[in-house]
Every structure is written in C-alpha cells, then in structure tokens.
C-alpha cells in the first residue's frame, strides 16, 4: 500500500497527479506549487533566507538550495529526505535527471524570492550570497516596458519638469508623481 | 601518604556568545514584491528640455531658411543650414541616449503589492 501523500492545498493539478503516488511528476508539481507560493515562503522568512545563504556559502549549487528550501517550506523534512533517497537510489537515474533539471529551472523563482526578501525587509540589512549576487540583482527589462518607460520619462520631463516622477521599470508604468 | 586533595573540577567551557535574536517578521509583509524603480528629478527634466529646445530651434531655423531664404542661397545661409542639420542630428541622438539610458538604469528597489 502506498503511503499517504501530503498535497499542497486545493490544487486541481496535484489532485489529478495524486492517482500516481510517488511519481516524479507529483514531486515536481509539488515543488512548483511550493515555489509559486510566495506568502508561504515569506512567512518563514528567517529559516528560508538564512538556510539558503548558508548553503550557498558552503558551495552548494542552486539545485541543492532549492531542495533544502523545499524541505524547509514543506515543514516536513521526512518528505525532503525521501525525495533525496529516491533520487539517489533510482537505478536508471531518470527521475534524478528530470528532477535536477526541474530544480535548475526554478532558479529564477529562487532569486526572485531572495530579492523580494532583501527589499521587503530592508531594515534587517540582509546580505546576498556571493554565489548568486549577480543573478539576484540583475533583471531583464522587456522591450515594451523599456519603450514605455522612455516615453513616460520624456513626456513627464516636458509636461512636469519641476515634479519628481517615479517609474517602475519592469512594466514602464508611472507609480507616483509629486 | 595518600593525598586527600580532590581533583579540581574542570572549568566549564565558556559559552559562545549567542547572536542577538532577530525580530521575526513572520508573514508581516507577505504578498509583497520587489520592483526596480527610477525617479525623474528636476535636473534630468531640465536636461531633456534643454536638448529638446535646441532641436526645435534648429528645426525652426531650417524651416525659416526654406521659406524665406534667397534662391540660390547665400554662402552664409548654406552654412547655417549645415549647422542646423548637425544640431538636429546630434540632439535627436542625445535625446534617445538620455532617455533610453535612464530608463534602463534603476535607481533603487521598492517593495509593493503585486500588480496584475
């Protein structure tokens, strides 16, 4: 008999996958679900951030950090351990390869999360690990957002040269004008 | 003669100073995101307006020369038209560089609610 599986709450996709207990898809989908749940991660801010920093400082790669955080966020280290054991003992290595590939793809979510933590809790003066410093503080600005920000800059410079205008660069929108 | 001295107990190892407990803001600011922002100030606006004024003046001068200049133009008018052409080319490039460069360089990161 298969052991019961703890699912992320109210997720139709996970419920559908639950018919295949212990499958790699379920594990990857669960990891996805957890990484997408910012509130849950930010709610455990201290554990998540400090453990991630420590792991990076030890020389761990992004995959290891995500796995560690997954164990933290799950609040079920047994699930994390069983996942690692599965990956280690998988004879054909198919699950391991797929899981590592899936984890690596989640790097973007991880750096976004860490960046959010540093910015939201500025008063704590968190340090960014050297290993991901560049990844955390380098952003990709879409072309449309860049053009929109250019237009807003130009237009507000002409219409309101004496005011201060704050523009958000990821969308190019004006946030505030004083 | 057996000694009655008892061995002195080993001193307890000094405890490492603990790090001061950090205030845990659990869940307090959940749901926020970090956004790169820039602030347009008076200096930048003045710069853009100045460059734009140069471009417009050069353009107006060129139009004036076209309507009111002699035919064939004098040497001075030809020279003025060349200068206007250069100013227009330079200022348009400067405007694109100024505004485009500024829009690609965030001043700081700001936290806020996720936007849809």
Quick summary:
The complex is a heterodimer of chains A (178) and B (116). Chain A contains 10 helices and 2 strands.
How would you portray this structure in words?
The complex is a heterodimer of chains A (178) and B (116). Chain A is mainly alpha-helical and 178 residues long. Helices cover 65% and strands 4% of the residues of chain A. Chain A has helices at residues 12-17, 24-36, 38-43, 45-57, 62-74, 77-89, 94-105, 107-120, 130-137, 143-159; strands at residues 165-168, 174-177. A two-stranded antiparallel sheet of chain A has the order 1-2. In chain A, helix 2 (24-36) packs parallel to helix 7 (94-105), helix 4 runs antiparallel to helix 5 (62-74) and helix 5 (62-74) packs across helix 6 (77-89). The longest helix of chain A has 17 residues, at 143-159. Chain A is elongated and about 65 Å long. Chain A starts with 11 loop residues before the first helix and ends with a strand. With 116 residues, chain B is mostly helical. Chain B has a domain at 52-105. Chain B contains 2 helices and 2 strands, in the order E-H-H-E. Chain B has a two-stranded antiparallel ribbon with strand order 1-2. Chain B starts with 32 loop residues before the first strand and ends with a strand. The interface between A and B is large, with 40 and 38 residues.
